[in-house]
Amino acid sequence: MKIYKYYFLDIDKPISVESHNKHNARAVLEKVCNDANFKDKGYLLTNLVKETSETLVIDVSVKETKTGQVIWNGRGWSKKTNII
After folding, report:
1. Which one of 18, 19, 55, 62 has the lowest number of neighbouring Cβ atoms within 10 Å?
2. For 76, which DSSP code?
């Protein structure tokens, strides 16, 4: 699993997509950019200036969600627990 980030001209916040491959991530990006809410904010494919990818590492990759931190377990995201 990877996280693909797409950066757009004059926009500070990139669009992030979790996907197993670049082709699926691009398909999601196209759907997002075709949404009127994103188009109006300048997220146009013609304004795409940079793309990066990050490989998720088991028990290392962490992200913040509405319910707290989660950690990548190799098959999906699970709630992070603090072990002492």
Report:
1. 55
2. S
- From CA 59, how far away is CA 56, in angstroms rounded? 9
- pTM of the complete model: 0.84
> Helix count (H) and strand count (E) of the chain?
2, 6
Task: Give the pLDDT confidence score for residue 4 in this predicted structure.
Answer: 98
Average pLDDT in the 39-68 region?
Answer: 94
* Three-class SS state of 24: helix
Lookup result for tokens 């509405």: 66
Q: Where are the domains of the chain?
A: 2-79
